[in-house]
Write a structure and sequence with these properties.
By secondary structure, the chain is α+β, with helices and mostly antiparallel strands. It folds into five domains: about 230 residues, NAD(P)-binding Rossmann-like Domain (Rossmann fold); about 55 residues, Helix Hairpins; about 170 residues, Thiol Ester Dehydrase, Chain A (Roll), CATH 3.10.129; about 130 residues, Roll (Thiol Ester Dehydrase, Chain A), CATH 3.10.129.10; about 110 residues, Nonspecific Lipid-transfer Protein, Chain A, CATH 3.30.1050. It is built from 22 helices and 22 strands. The strands form four sheets. A ten-stranded antiparallel beta sheet has the order 8-10-11-12-9-14-17-16-15-13. A five-stranded mixed beta sheet has the order 3-4-5-6-7, with helices on both faces. Strand 18 and strand 19 form a beta hairpin. The protein is elongated and about 120 Å long. Belongs to the short-chain dehydrogenases/reductases (SDR) family. One of its GO terms (cellular component) is peroxisome. Keywords: Fatty acid metabolism, Isomerase, Lipid metabolism, Lyase, NAD, Oxidoreductase, Peroxisome. Its main location: other.
């Protein structure tokens, strides 16, 4: 069986082996030396070193003494002894229960204890406990055996903790193999297929001095090995401060208690208990908010009245500095050549990261929430839970003009009762003039404000989407700096939670945490680069849920999956494996096919031709003066039905100026692309150039600083 396979495997690699076997049957009856002697003879016949031992594992001291007398030391203990007394639960006798625990659990304890001090003194030891799938999962007719086998796992975990500082490692295996025991519960063909030799290599590796594994559990059999770990749901708080905990509260939170989305995977008792400390902190922070669903708390009295209410309107004034500062805050660097278009206003493709659209919206939201009449909630106890952001293509407020204003209007979309807190859904529409530039939906979670009997879900909420169940198509890692939060806050999020250690401690954090929207910005730019080639015009919408905090200095790992025009993603903290952003996705616009160079231009019926002809006549009259003022060459690519229909060049750099059809004869300083219809709206002042750019209708390449001079030309010389 397994013991023979282990003994032969270790002996083949030079180990001196004590082969212990009492020699009884699978039920523990009888005694014989033949089983141990046979294995020892096999080892010695191959030139190996081995001695037999016929003691019961309950005489652990004698067994270990055999090793010391024969070889002078003991380095490895493999607890493999076992018997079966299978009965259905109600038929298990006291003797059946006791003998199973005496051999499996108590025997492993006694042998390991006898070897412990020798391993401790030599600063080396490797111990294997043998559990079973029956102990891990349960099995009919094996209640006694299952209890003992799972007990071995608990014993091993504690030995691993206590032995770590002495270089004593203890691991547990749950093998499936043909043996004297399994012959009674497995068909013969499976007994023959599950060879013990398919288990032994794992045991040999775990006992090697170079193996660092400790305190782990493995299932093994048939040439397959799998590691097991504990998984715990995020759970739910089911009581409020100074309030009783009731079965009804447990019932109401049961779905959350059993929800394994973004589950944690604790490995130590400290990690296990820490969640209780966090829960106590959250309960204490609730004040006297009731968790009773029949309570007439302060939230319920006014929640219906605030839905649909418009909050404060906020005007956001910007220059090129704001989007550059934002780009630096979310990790962009001049070390990456393709980042320069987001960091240097003089770059010919200078533009703004699409995720910058949350900045003016966030300012509007937080300005309005505290002023909601009748809503008795504490903004300091809020967490940004989720975010949806949709843009009218490029959100680059300073790509064509140096200054401007955006107006954001916040509205309460809905309020939800999550029991331990309330979720406020806030819609924010951001405008340039009357044109909608960006729409954001923020989900704010207010700790302790729930339990007012409201609905748990809303059809107005933008939902997250789980990623495909396959390895990610792309992974990008970014190491944040210790000052990442200090830099990002300069974009307008001044919450001291992200900078002040004492304030962070009040929130239950060991140190200041990174802004969730900073992590969001890292992820958004990674998707933009990986799947849209940094083309901001292809970035349509993004949705995320904030799951776990990130500390400045940690590594953000963005994992991405492409499904059509939707890019699913999640962000993990590489050091801990915890998911910080879950259920995220970005919707992108497909890349447009490039127009063939040989395809003829479609000039017929273009209204813009008349405008350029008129500009040409005016340039002939005032060319010298305009060249002195402007000193630039502008190229216009006019489109129709998505394809380039005509090109015009306004040369106000050479000679007395010129306007002509076709691309610039020498390099253009600035190139503009827009449709014939949109061009007419601009020159007729139905839409100003800034709004056209913000809505994605006008695209600019080259020296964007010169665009202001062109606005003067269109205004003064294109009135027909």
């Amino acid at each position: 069986g397994l013991g023979r396979a282990y003994a032969l495997a270790f002996a083949e690699r030079g180990a001196s082996v004590v082969v212990n076997d009492l020699g009884g049957d699978f039920k523990g009856y009888g005694k014989s030396s033949s089983a141990a002697d046979k294995v020892v003879d096999e080892i010695r016949a191959k030139g190996g070193k081995a001695v037999p031992n016929y003691d019961s594992v309950e005489d652990g001291e004698k067994l270990v003494q055999t090793a010391l007398e024969a070889f002078g030391r003991i380095d490895i203990v493999i607890n493999n002894a076992g018997i079966l007394r299978d009965r259905s639960f109600v038929r298990i006798s006291d003797e059946d229960w006791d003998i199973i625990h005496r051999i499996h659990l108590r025997g492993s304890f006694l042998v390991t204890r006898a070897a412990w001090n020798h391993m401790k003194n030599q600063k080396f030891g490797r111990i294997i406990m043998t559990s079973s799938a029956a102990g891990i999962y349960g099995n009919f007719g094996q209640a006694n055996y299952s209890a003992a086998k799972l007990g071995l796992l608990g014993l091993a975990n504690t030995i691993a903790v206590e032995g770590r500082k002495y270089n004593i490692h203890c691991n547990t295996i749950a093998p499936t193999a043909g043996s004297r025991l399994t012959q009674t519960v497995m068909p013969q063909d499976l007994v023959d297929a599950f060879k013990p030799e398919y288990v032994a290599p794992l045991v040999v590796w775990l006992c090697h001095e170079s193996c660092a594994e400790n305190g782990s559990l493995f299932e093994v059999g048939a040439g397959w090995i799998g590691k097991l770990r504990w998984e715990r749901s995020l759970g739910a708080i089911v009581r409020g401060k100074n309030q009783p905990m009731t079965p009804e509260a447990v019932r109401d939170k049961w779905e959350k208690v059993c929800d394994f989305d973004n589950a944690s995977k604790p490995r130590t008792i400290q990690e296990s208990i820490s969640v209780l400390s966090d829960a106590l902190s959250q309960i204490e922070s609730q004040g006297n908010v009731s968790m009773n669903s029949t309570s007439s708390g302060s939230v319920v009295s006014s929640s219906a009245g605030i839905v649909g209410r418009e909050l404060a309107t906020n005007v956001y004034t910007y220059t090129h500095l704001e989007p550059i500062l934002y780009a630096l805050g979310v990790g962009m660097s001049t070390k990456d050549p393709d980042h320069l278009k987001f960091l240097f206003e003089g770059n010919e493709e200078f533009c703004c990261l699409p995720s910058f659209g949350v900045i003016p919206a966030q300012t509007s939201m937080f300005d309005g929430v505290p002023s909601l009449p009748g809503l008795n909630i504490d903004l300091a106890k809020s967490d940004l839970w989720a975010l949806f952001s949709k843009l009218n293509l490029a959100m680059c407020p300073c790509s064509s003009f140096l200054t401007g204003q955006l107006t954001s209007v916040s509205t309460v979309a809905d309020i939800l009762d999550k029991g331990s807190g309330a979720v406020l859904l806030i819609d924010v529409n951001t405008y340039s003039g009357k044109d909608l530039v960006c729409y954001n939906q923020f989900s704010l979670f207010f700790v302790g404000a729930g339990g007012f009997g409201g609905k748990r879900t809303s059809e107005k909420a933008k939902l997250t989407a789980n990623p495909p169940k396959r390895p990610p198509d792309a992974v990008i890692s970014d190491v944040t700096t210790p000052d990442q939060a200090a830099l990002y806050r300069l974009s307008g999020d001044w919450n001291p939670l992200h900078l002040d250690p004492s304030f962070a401690a009040l929130g239950g954090f060991k140190k200041p945490i990174l802004h969730g929207l900073c992590t969001f910005g890292f992820a958004a730019r990674n998707v933009l680069k990986q799947f849209a080639d940094n083309d901001v015009n292809r970035f349509k919408a993004i949705k995320v849920r904030f799951a776990k905090p990130v500390y400045p200095g940690q590594t953000l790992q963005t994992e991405m999956w492409k499904e059509g025009n939707r890019i699913h993603f999640q962000t993990k903290v590489k050091e801990t494996g915890e998911v910080a952003i879950a259920g995220g996705y970005v919707d992108i616009v497909p890349a447009l096919a490039k127009t063939s160079a040989q395809e003829p231009l479609m000039t017929e019926g273009l209204q813009s031709n008349l405008v350029f002809e008129e500009i040409g006549r005016r340039v002939k009259e005032m060319g010298n003066e305009l060249v002195k003022k402007v000193n630039a060459i502008f190229q216009w690519d006019i489109t129709k039905d998505g394809k380039t229909a005509m090109q015009w060049t306004i040369d106000l750099k050479n000679g007395s100026g010129a306007v002509y059809q076709g691309p610039a004869k020498s390099s253009a300083d600035t190139t503009f692309t827009l449709s014939d219809e949109d061009f007419m709206d601009v020159v007729q002042q139905k839409v100003n150039p800034q709004k056209a750019f913000l809505s994605g209708k006008l695209k600019v390449k080259g020296n964007i600083m010169l665009s202001q001079k062109l606005e003067m030309i269109l205004k003064d010389h294109a009135k027909l």
